């Protein structure tokens, strides 16, 4: 049988044809013959699967292990996201108890009040809710059993080993961790801004992190970028700061992975303290309050133990150990989620201690791109970080300086850092404003403050260009919708929604 003219084409010419074909057409070409299958499976074909998100469930991990075997389509994966799963059944359970047509709505976050549906559900609607609840409970049971048995670690280690052996890079461009929440059924994930729970999200984030760490310990795979729960809505997904101290960073596979990381993005939260009996059992979902009979006002007896937990060294040492393991680190994006306490006595400035430890340790010596978000910092610590490390691109968002002033830090930035982005900075608990001149700042304090007054950005071609900043002497009276919108955005980025704070459980 004569060879097809297509099969006789050089791979470079065939790839030129491939770029004009969609994924379905490429699949059809691959079915024609083994020769065409090989030629159709080039760079353009791989572009359809270079980015892959996989939930840490049994079916998804088994499928990914098969797809990453030698010669399979998974060998093209370069950007790999692994997501822990929360099956949140609180809404469905409450709906069935109340017999309503729909679940509770979001309501008002600031008051913690939820929209309660009044319309009763039909028999068919409640049957669908019951089926969805049963499915989610079944999936949750399998998810828990897989984790308890170590099956998730074994399957994920196999995936990592396949990627290390079969991909062109013998590893990944990026490895990211996230959490997916299912609420209304087991097929429709909740958008991050619409999540009602936060403690259950963070609990699964912790479990996911340790699963991935154990899997990396059993496989040697390199990645240039590592993202640990750091995204635009990181307040809905974060890693408790003390969890980093539970890790053995000396495990062979983990050492190999971290030694090749050049970019690290991580969101850490303050330590979550159980101040009441209700805290210890709750997931942070306000729906649980609708049917909970727990006494939310009785405090756990040992206040000294809670104070000790808030100030333990393990809350801060793990981050330094992680950064020291990333010996080639050139880019760091570090964000902090703030957790409000019921009692101010437990409010330890964890953000300040984190920055202090970074200033004391030699763990950023190669970092040229640095982003810090939502920290309390001392002037001396920030100055130390900027003077001792070769930072050329700096982003500071929602940073409170206490104690100290920004003068020396801004002078350091003006003289030595070409690219800057400064946003929502505070001094003495007062937000500073930027402008073309000090007079311009003072004269622009009107209702509906422009966003640019809170933000200063400079590109590398504007090096040494001075900028004006000031702490306003006067305060606007009455609510400012523009400022309120900014505060809402910061809360989305750096902390749980207002209604999810423990102080709203009363």
How would you characterize this protein structure?
The protein is an alpha/beta fold. Among the domains are: 48 residues; 198 residues, no CATH class. The protein is 40% helix and 18% strand. The protein has 20 helices and 19 strands. The strands form four sheets. Strands 1, 2, 5, 6, 7, 8, 9, 10, 12, 14 and 18 form an eleven-stranded mixed β-sheet that branches. A four-stranded mixed β-sheet has the order 11-13-15-16. A two-stranded antiparallel sheet has the order 3-4. Helix 10 links the parallel strand 5 and strand 6. Helix 6 packs parallel to helix 9. The longest helix has 27 residues. The chain is globular and about 85 Å long.
Task: Give a brief description.
By secondary structure, the protein is α/β, with parallel strands linked by helices. The chain is built from 20 helices and 19 strands. Among the domains are: 1-48; 273-322 and 341-346 and 365-506, no CATH class.
């Amino acid at each position: 049988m004569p060879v097809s003219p297509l099969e006789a084409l050089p791979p470079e010419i065939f790839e030129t044809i491939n770029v004009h074909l969609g994924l379905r057409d490429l699949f059809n070409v691959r079915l024609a013959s083994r020769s065409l299958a090989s030629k159709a499976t080039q760079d353009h074909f791989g572009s359809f699967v270079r980015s892959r998100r996989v939930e840490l469930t049994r079916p998804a991990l088994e499928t990914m292990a098969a797809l990453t075997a030698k010669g399979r389509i998974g060998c093209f994966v370069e950007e790999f996201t692994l997501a822990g799963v929360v099956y949140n059944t609180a809404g469905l359970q409450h709906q069935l108890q109340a017999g309503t047509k729909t679940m509770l709505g979001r309501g008002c976050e600031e008051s913690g009040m939820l929209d309660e549906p009044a319309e009763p559900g039909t028999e068919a609607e409640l049957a669908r809710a019951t089926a969805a609840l049963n499915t989610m409970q079944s999936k949750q049971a399998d998810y828990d059993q897989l984790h308890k048995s170590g099956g998730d670690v074994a399957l994920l280690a196999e995936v990592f080993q396949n990627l290390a052996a079969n991909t062109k890079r013998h590893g990944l461009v990026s490895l990211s961790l996230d959490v997916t929440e299912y609420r209304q059924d087991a097929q429709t994930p909740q958008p991050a801004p619409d999540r009602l729970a936060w403690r259950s999200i963070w609990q699964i984030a912790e479990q996911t992190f340790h699963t991935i760490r154990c899997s990396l310990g059993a496989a040697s795979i390199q990645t240039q970028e590592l993202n640990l729960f750091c995204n635009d809505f990181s307040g809905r997904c974060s890693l408790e700061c003390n969890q980093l101290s539970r890790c053995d960073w000396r495990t062979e596979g983990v050492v190999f992975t971290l030694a090749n990381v050049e970019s690290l993005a991580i969101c850490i939260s303050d330590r979550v303290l159980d101040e009441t009996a209700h805290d210890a059992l709750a997931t942070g979902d306000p729906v649980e309050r609708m049917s909970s009979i727990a006494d939310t006002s009785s405090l756990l007896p040992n206040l000294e133990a809670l104070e000790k937990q808030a100030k333990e060294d393990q809350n801060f040492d793990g981050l330094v150990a992680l950064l020291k393991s990333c010996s080639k680190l050139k880019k760091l994006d570090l964000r902090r989620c703030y957790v409000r306490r019921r009692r101010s006595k437990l409010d330890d400035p964890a953000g300040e201690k984190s920055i202090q430890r970074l200033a004391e340790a030699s763990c950023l010596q190669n970092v040229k791109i640095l982003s810090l978000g939502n920290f309390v910092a001392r002037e001396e610590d920030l100055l130390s970080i900027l003077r001792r490390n070769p930072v050329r691109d700096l982003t500071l968002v929602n940073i409170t300086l206490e104690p100290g002033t920004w003068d020396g830090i801004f002078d350091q930035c003006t003289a030595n850092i070409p690219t800057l982005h400064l946003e929502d900075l505070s001094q003495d608990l007062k937000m500073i404003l930027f402008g073309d001149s000090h007079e311009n700042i003072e004269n622009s304090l009107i209702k509906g403050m422009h966003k640019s007054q809170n933000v200063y950005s400079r590109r590398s071609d504007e090096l040494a260009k001075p900028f004006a900043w000031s702490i306003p002497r006067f305060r606007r009276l009455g609510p400012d919708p523009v400022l309120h919108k900014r505060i809402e955005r910061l809360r989305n980025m750096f902390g749980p929604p207002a209604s999810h704070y423990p102080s709203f459980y009363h």
